[in-house]
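In this supplementary section we document a worked example of the pipeline. Step one takes a protein sequence of length 183 as its only input; no multiple sequence alignment statistics are reported here. Step two produces a three-dimensional model, which step three serialises into structure tokens for compact storage. The input and output of this example are shown verbatim.
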Amino acid sequence: MVTLNIAEKKRKLTDLSEIRVYLQNIGIAYEQWQPSYPLTENSTADEILKVYAPDLELLKQAGGYIKADVIDINADTPNLEAMLAKFRQEHWHDEDEVRFIIEGHGLFHINPQTSPVVAIEVSAGDLLVVPKGTLHWFDLCSDRRIRAIRLFQDISGWTPHYTHSNEENKYIPLCFSSQFLKN
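The serialised model returned by step three reads:
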């Protein structure tokens, strides 16, 4: 279940309709999807993509996405900390960042520039579309697990452009607390 935290305002949203409206107002698309049949931890990437093929096709057509894949990260992923260190820095992309969560939990921080930074904790069933040019960063939650479908408009466009603002250093990196702003 998605949770949205606005630390600067000491506000936490758990109501799905409130979250959708808030995210829409800052340019972030959010949906919840359900598979047509149950997936398991052992489901292959091809099986996952097949289950969601009709929904993915609609997304591809609407957003100009040309490729979908499945990323599978867990506590045993080689070089996990080095990988996360890259995700944890505020950055933006030349294309949308589209993630549909299959398993696990993650925390997207979005820095919309016109309103406070928001932390969006995503889990299975959550689809998030972060538009190109949006400042953001990502981290895993305490379960150290995320399996997600990613969509790309152009693989080369997914390169992060780091801001070097250190904005991310103001926030607790993992989903251990309902308070995501460091004191």
